[in-house]
Amino acid sequence: MTLVNDGTADGGGISLPELDGKEPAEQLDTLRDMLEKATRLKEGAVNFLKMELTEVVRMRVEAELDQANSRIEAIKKTIESVSSRRKKPLGARTQSPVVTKRSNDSKHSRHKDDGGDDFRTAKQQASTLLRTLLSYARHSLSPVSVSSASSSAGPPPPTTEAELEQARTETMNRLIAVLQRNVRVRFEVSMDELVAAATPALADHASTRARATAYRLLRHSLVDRDSVERLLEHSLEWYIVKSLTRDNKYATEREQVVKLLRVVVEIGAERRSAGLGHVPLAEPVMRALIAVAEHPEDPLRQICCETLVEILLIDVDLMAWTGGTRVLFQALSEGPIELVPLIATAFLYIVDAPKTRAYMHPGTDLEIALSGITDAYGKGPAHAERMRATAKVVSVILRTWSGLMYLCMDDMLSIRTMINTLRIPSLETREVILDMFFELLHIQTPEWYQTFIDGRRLTMYRRHRSLSNPPKEKETPVKASDKLKLTDQYISLLMAVLTKAGLLDALIAMLEESTLGSSLSRKATLLIGEVLQIANKVLPLGLAAKLQTIPRIFALAADYTEGEHRIVGTTALAAIDSFNRHRTRLQPAAPVRDSRQRANSVEDHVRRGQRQVEQVKIKLAMQMDDKTFQALIIETQVLLRGDYTKWSYETLLDLIEGPLLNAKRLEEAIKVSKFVKILMKFFHPFSHRFSDIKKTKANVKWIKLGCTLLTTLMANADGVRYLSMEDEFLPQIFNGSNTAPDFDPIFSKKRVEETLTSGYLDMIGTLSKQKNGLELLEKHKIFTAFYHMSELRSREDLIKGIIENIDYTNDGHPRIVLSKALTSSYKHIRLYATRHLGRLIQASPATNAWMLRLLLTQLYDPDRDVCELAVQFLEEACESQDILQIVVDMQPTLEHLGEVANSLLYKFMSTPVGFRYLYDVGFIEREMDMWLHERNFHYVVEVEVYLSRELNFNASEDFDDDSQAFDGTVPPHFYGELAKTELGCEVLREKGHFAEFAHFIRQHALESDDSEFIFKLKSVLWAVGNVATSEKGLRFLEEEEIIRNMLEIAEFSPILSVRGTCFFALGLVSSTAQGAEILDDYGWESTLSPLGSPTGLCIPSDIDKFVSIPAWEEPEPPKRVRELVPPTSQEEVDVLSAISNLANTVIANAASRSLARMKSKSEYRHIFSSPSLYYRVLYMISTQRYRLPVRRYILELFDIPLDAGVVRALVSYSNSLEDTGNAASPGQACPRLQPRASVFGRPVRGRRASESDEDESLNSEDEKEQPKPKVERPVSLLPARRVSGFDGVEQDEEGRRKESNLDMAREREEKMAALLRGRSMSMGGSGHRRSKVEHEDNNS
Fold this sequence. Notes:
A two-stranded antiparallel sheet has the order 1-2. A two-stranded antiparallel ribbon has the order 3-4. It is mainly α. It has 70 helices and 4 strands.
């Protein structure tokens, strides 16, 4: 039955055929689903419109959006129609129009909340609300409009100011809600009308809530750069300046202002290359924002500093000439601590490029970040916390290319200064600096370091542990190679820089301070030992050998003239030798696949002796006579006592591992004494003896006893026969495991977790290690029970125990059980089985094809996590060429995995068979095009993110990324793997990609302007470096002769990060012997392994040349675009002079008192209500630096409430007061007015010159009585002369008279000085003039 299908009539020509043949309830469900889909389509189109699109695409998207809106409207009308017909009974009474309207409104609001606003409806609402705000604005300006507004339809207008403000705020909130729900409406709202409507709410007479709402409305109306430009066309900067200057009582308003400014920066900024963009913020707004960021007690300081950092990264020029960089440098030195790494990183980004680097001042700017360490002398232990924060910043700086090279300027002055703080004996906080160097060099400090620092002996460290039972270490994947990491290339350069700057000499100087060892000196010794170890690992042989000689320590040890020197030297050498020996013993090297375990010189003879003793004991036990054997059986107490706790465990174990290995003794124990029968009965599941023992650390030994007993029985035919025919051990295990889980008393989950029942799985694993044991397990259908268990979701513990304990050496059921677990229907079982299979492959000394075949099966698992885990283990296993060849021969299909399997496929490319296979399936062609145009750039991003994370692991603790792209070595690169085979080299040569790379390097080697070219240059350098990692690929570099250009980039590129990229690329070139020889010819030394093979690390012989930065010239400060004409009123000059003096912290107090007295004088009161002077003051605080409290004080001096009329007046004054530079005619020329007195006032006896008094006011009573104003002399910058000998008490009338005479004498002094300046005098004239002045002074 079809009740509704009239969507055409209600929906504006849109039919809904989906409703045909459905009941009303079904139609409503269908309509709601259609509404949800249409709403999602609309939201997607709206989001798509936010992107930068071409005109044609934008028109198509807008057409689709209009169609979606029409469909949504039609669906809503149809829903209303279906609901009304369904709810309205036959013959029901018709509702009144008012009730119907309210009902429709409520329905509309519900549909609006559920499905989002319709665009037309939202636009209409926004227009209505905007018109309402405009009417409120007219109402606030013109009371006449109240009567006209009251006659119009709609709600009555507010009658009081409070009602008007409340109505305006509510209307703005409703408009904000509309703009938030429908983004497209923002494009349709007129910015001019919106600003006109919101401006009355920004005035001073409005409440702080209204101003905050107005700023919020303006923020939500911004959608793109055009909207920001239209907003900034209106004179809103004075409102923003006033709001930012308010105190903390207006926190909400100030917060909304900062949010508005951040949106303006985010949306309206024009981003170019690093720091060379444009931020559309005027200078008054920037000065106000900087004042907030500079004030240490302001709650918005941190967010303002973050905003300034964002502006710095976009427009460094704006920050430089408004003083923002000065504030950030101050924050870099003083905090807040949590922002210091962020600010340092931003400045390092600026240092990278030459155009932005020019705004830095070497030696003063970035070096201020080191002041916490370099200025630590004399500040005591309380300064340690700041030193730790500074140490973190230094780590951030020295782990970037721009920071390292910047601090290496001026012959590494900054680094040397930092290192030389270690030479200060009285500096108690030097341990913080030592910890900083440990962190810088990535030195991991194990637990035994503290024992060494405390001065305790390490010979017995960990010796209390039993050597025969070493602790079981956590299983970790074993890498197939011990190649150095990519970060070691950077560590090698950093090590060379630090040692060249005198790190070892400073550490040795710490040792010379005292012959008695201290924790600080021992920590310095540790650092010396670690530095020598790292140098031996990552530095070239020549440089490392110089460090290893440590000539200063040997010179001290051989100094027989000074006894203390010899003691210090020998103690240091002994400590370093002890450290190296204990490091070798306590930190053994990580195991390597297919390598023989190295004999430990300290413990190997002990282990060898123990093995010999055990072998002798077994031989003697097997030759035991009958009497001794019977006595030994009786001694075990097994035949005498049924309680296992009374048994002698050690005797039992010796008996099983010794005499019972003899067939005769075993037969006797089985048939004669029934010893084996009684003992095996103890392990029977249904006897509830062994299976009921609590699982504790002390009781686990009984599991070992059971496994040893089964091993002994399986070593003899009689034992196998006994287990097969006579004993009930295996049948009871089958019966216990085959019982339904709900009724199982043996293998229930609780018993497996709490008792030794889990030990039966270990015993079954022991039996599975031998063929006879497998036959027994098959005979008693144990594997059948395992197959059933593998399908139980609730018994994950049993399944994991089975997989972990069974031995897979022999082919048969164990491998079938593993394969069944690998293909289980439960994801967690498949993950566990895959992980266990990967560990088996890692631990296997030989290559097992069946394991690889099972692991390849996991690549087709339906769950992506299982596939990724299988790819990870396969990639690790394929480091071995034998395994790689086997996997390639199997020819697995990996295309369905996407990018997850790319690294594995790249390994396939390194073999001829794999390359041919991938070439035939089209993988090579496809990947080559993708790498040329896209993947090369992704590779750069991945490597740089990895290096940043690894080098700054403490600075980025909030960076949470569990998925490691690679394990530290250079990640596989398509072109690098392509060049490892002859076929790959042919394809690379045919395509001509390498020739393009070489041409690009030659053409853009020293590029410094275009960011796209710089980024592409980095990608090309990585590609060329990876090609050079093989001898076949190195031929391409020799043919193109490109290595010389790479060295030129590394030494002379103006972009410091490009130098670093080229440094890593040259390290890749040095990974072959031939490449290392070529680089050695150019003065770059490569690091070699002990066997003489290259390790892929190289550094330049001349480090100073590599880390040097060319000197630069500072950019000229921008000239002031506009100046104001000088004031014509003497009162204005006085006020402006006092306000100008407020910027000087030395005389600011006196200037503020002068301003306070001026405002109290009747002749000055009109000045503080003058809009002209108000604009001059605003211009002054917008072009000069004033602290936030001073800005607040200045604005509070004026009795001018800021509103639309005042802003218009300020705009007119900005045009009328502008100094156009046109010279006035001679008749109109007037002298520039000067302030009538210095801010210091007239110094009197007993009072400081900076203090003010009522007698020092600018309009004293004496000056009022004079008919003509006295022209004051200019303020002298010479030091004021004082007559010593007065005690500073208040002077009497006679003293004041003498002071008047002194003023007259000063006037005569000025006249005499003017006469002397008019004469041409010789060299001695200045002394003659000075003597005459002193003579006049004495006469007075």
